[in-house]
Design brief:
Blueprint (H helix, E strand, L loop, with lengths): L1 H18 L5 H19 L4 H34 L9 E3 L15 E7 L9 E7 L5 E3 L9 E2 L16 E2 L5 E11 L2 E9 L2 H5 L12 E9 L3 E14 L5 E14 L2 E15 L2 E12 L7 E6 L1
Parallel strand pairs: 11-13
Antiparallel strand pairs: 1-14, 2-3, 2-7, 3-4, 5-7, 6-10, 7-8, 7-9, 8-9, 8-14, 9-12, 10-11, 12-13
Helix pairs in contact: 1-2, 2-3
Length: 304
């Protein structure tokens, strides 16, 4: 009888705990089986020992299954929380700044320089190099290109809370941005750029404009004459982890550019980051003109 009372106490204690929790289907099934066994105990006390053994086996099985479920949930959560890199699958990157892609698999192709003018009819696509089936390539920028924009069209503060002006030493100087396009059989298969990582190349787009990944990328400008550009743009943006968390963040865009006549490589570097949940935003983005495309920069190909 003492054993029976003890058993009922365990059952009642178990029911008391689950009464205040959300009971799942497997837990309901377990409770129903326990109830059946407890009823058998009441009717057949002589079978108490054997029924207790059955209950013990059931209990161990139930707890083992529950542990497996919780472990699986935790592993799945950890896997989900890891930053996905699937968006970078279409990118390949050189091992050094040398003009060579070890993983190139697109055969012979042609490299074009494409200008980005204000008027579409002024756009130019000029052949500047080739890439062979082994992934080795060479390119040379043309001496000059047509431009229809001025330097004061660029490097302005966007969304600043106060009106911050950019200082141009010669605001009317002509300028035009450009990029490298890779074509095969007359069709563009992707673009070629310079960055310290695949992620930095990916961030050179509206979707990645605020991300705080460490490193830098390089963008290309043709400039008519020498000109300097300076400003410091501080502004607030609404950061989010794409879940429930949102936060006001201050970011700074710093322009300290000294252009020379001809082709210029502008370094866009991330300096510091801040997080909303596990989503990273930059604190400071710095723009400067560099020589020789940078020392630790690499070539990146992004397939269309």
């Amino acid at each position: 009888m003492k054993t029976y009372i003890k058993t009922l106490g365990i059952i009642i204690l178990f029911f008391g705990n689950v009464a205040f929790a959300q009971i799942k289907n497997e837990e309901k099934e377990y409770i129903e089986e326990v109830q059946k066994i407890s009823q058998l105990m009441a009717k057949h006390p002589e079978k108490m020992d054997s029924l207790m053994k059955v209950m013990d086996v059931m209990d161990k099985k139930f707890r083992a299954n529950k542990t497996k479920t919780e472990v699986a949930k935790k592993q799945n959560k950890n896997s989900t929380n890891k930053k996905s890199t699937s968006h970078l699958d279409r990118f390949i990157i050189s091992e050094t700044k040398a003009r060579y892609f070890k993983d190139w698999q697109y055969g012979d192709a042609v490299i074009f320089l494409v200008t980005q003018p204000y008027k579409p009819e002024n756009k130019r696509e000029l052949k500047v190099g080739d890439i062979n089936a082994q992934g080795e390539f060479k390119l040379n920028e043309p001496e000059s290109v047509l431009f229809d924009r001025k330097v004061s069209d660029f490097f302005k503060c966007q969304g600043a809370s106060s009106q911050i002006e950019t200082t141009y030493s010669s605001p009317e100087i002509g300028i035009i941005p450009a990029f490298f396009s890779i074509k095969k059989n007359g069709e563009e298969i992707g673009v070629l750029s310079l960055a310290t990582s695949k992620q930095q190349a990916y961030n050179n787009s509206p979707i990645g404009q605020y991300t705080g990944d460490a490193g830098y990328r390089v963008v290309l400008f043709y400039v008519e004459e020498s000109v300097t550009v300076q400003t410091e743009c501080a502004r607030n943006i609404q950061g989010t982890d794409y879940g429930e968390n949102q936060k006001q963040l201050e970011i700074v865009d710093s322009y300290n550019l000294s252009f020379q006549p001809g082709w210029n490589y502008v370094k866009v570097a991330i300096n510091g980051s801040q997080n909303v949940g596990e989503v990273s935003y930059y604190k400071r983005k710095e723009y400067s003109v560099i020589e020789n495309r940078g020392e630790d920069v690499k070539w990146v190909f992004a397939k269309n």
